[in-house]
């Protein structure tokens, strides 16, 4: 099956001459029908510009396509003078739906997103999470096959964020809508996306299944996202504090599906007669699969510890941090 969205060496330049900025720089990327695809990057990476290129068609072409693409925004973009029902009905009115059909569709959507009781309220009377539910209902009004979510949870608190992400997962599962999520928050990608593209300076530097990209990151930008979210590896300052309390040799072991699990580490310690004490770490899940790392202080002969590290490195990444006296 052909991709639903395909970028082929896509480039977008703002300005001319010396002031020209390549916001999107030679991006080639496919998004498949029915998936939740995440685009992650820090501010200025070009992620929002990339996704807005999906709408970059000539006026006549865009008019035909517009009903097939819904979009939700960070700041909701609701019309303050219209009720909740009026906001959701607006794209249907533009599309020429009759009053009765509009009313039926609005009632159906507000019930689906869980705010049927707010139909006559105005945006100023709603919480952030309720406003975003209105935004999602409005985006779904014309039954689009694509939903673009641009930083849709950035203005929400953590609990409300999870509620909105759960709703987007339901939209994808129940309605078969392809969802493209643009964000700078790895927790959002980890919670919802099937595949992800990491952007930096207008380019896609890494992409693939979410677990593969974040459990074994190759690029600096991806490492930064993993470190900022999971905080499973000690910073240099934390490591110095750990060395004062733990003078023995320390290692950090990656925990991954198919290698480096807690069971693997325990078995390796026993096989090489080495004692290990966990002094730092964190393990999380992506797609119900574990990833993270554990930092251990080891007690045993240097030869036994070297053999232990060699065994673990056959299946996962291991950083040998040395000892307090001879740090590595």
TrEMBL record:
What are the GO BP annotations of this UniProt entry?
amino acid transport
* SMART domains named among the record's database cross-references: AAA (SM00382), NIL (SM00930)
Database matches in InterPro entries:
AAA+_ATPase, ABC_transporter-like_ATP-bd, ABC_transporter-like_CS, ACT-like_dom_sf, MetN_ABC, MetN_ABC_transporter-like, NIL_domain, P-loop_NTPase
Q: Which UniProt keywords apply?
A: Amino-acid transport, ATP-binding, Cell membrane, Membrane, Nucleotide-binding, Translocase, Transport
The answer to whether UniProt assigns keyword Transcription regulation to this entry is no
Give every ABC transporter domain span: 5-226
PROSITE patterns xrefs: ABC_TRANSPORTER_1 (PS00211), ABC_TRANSPORTER_2 (PS50893)
Instruction: Quote the Pfam families the UniProt record gives.
Output: ABC_tran (PF00005), NIL (PF09383)
Which GO-annotated molecular functions does the record name? ATP binding; ATP hydrolysis activity
UniProt KW Membrane keyword: yes
Spell out the SUPFAM superfamilies in the cross-references. ACT-like, P-loop containing nucleoside triphosphate hydrolases
Which named protein is this?
ATP-binding cassette domain-containing protein
């Amino acid at each position: 099956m052909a991709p639903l969205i395909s970028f082929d060496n896509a480039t977008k330049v703002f300005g001319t001459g010396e002031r020209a900025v390549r916001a999107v720089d030679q991006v080639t990327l496919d998004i498949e029908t029915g998936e939740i695809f995440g685009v992650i990057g820090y501010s200025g990476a070009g992620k929002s510009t990339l996704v807005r290129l999906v709408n970059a068609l000539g006026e006549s072409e865009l008019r035909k396509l517009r009903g097939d693409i819904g979009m939700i925004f960070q700041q909701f973009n609701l019309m303050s003078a219209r009720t909740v029902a009026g906001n959701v009905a607006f794209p249907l009115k533009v599309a020429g739906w009759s009053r009765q059909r509009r009313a039926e569709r609005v009632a159906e959507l507000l019930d689906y997103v869980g705010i049927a009781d707010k139909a006559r309220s105005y945006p100023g009377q709603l919480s952030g999470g309720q406003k975003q539910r209105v935004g999602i209902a409005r985006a779904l009004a014309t039954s689009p096959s694509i939903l673009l979510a641009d930083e849709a949870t950035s203005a929400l608190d953590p609990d409300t964020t999870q509620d909105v992400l759960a709703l987007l997962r339901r939209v994808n599962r129940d309605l078969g809508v392809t969802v493209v999520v643009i964000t700078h928050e790895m927790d959002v990608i980890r919670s919802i996306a099937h595949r992800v593209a990491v952007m930096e300076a207008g380019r896609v530097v890494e992409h693939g299944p979410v677990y593969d990209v974040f459990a074994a990151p190759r690029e600096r930008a991806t490492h930064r996202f993993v470190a900022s979210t999971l905080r499973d590896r000690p910073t240099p300052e934390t490591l110095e504090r750990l060395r004062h309390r733990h003078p023995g040799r320390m290692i950090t072991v990656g925990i991954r599906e198919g290698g480096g699990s807690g069971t693997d580490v325990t078995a390796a310690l026993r096989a090489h007669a080495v004692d290990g004490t966990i002094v730092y770490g964190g393990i999380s899940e992506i797609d119900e699969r574990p990833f993270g790392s554990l930092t251990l202080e080891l007690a045993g002969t240097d030869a036994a510890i070297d053999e232990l590290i060699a065994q673990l490195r056959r299946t996962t990444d291991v950083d040998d941090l040395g000892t307090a006296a001879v740090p590595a």
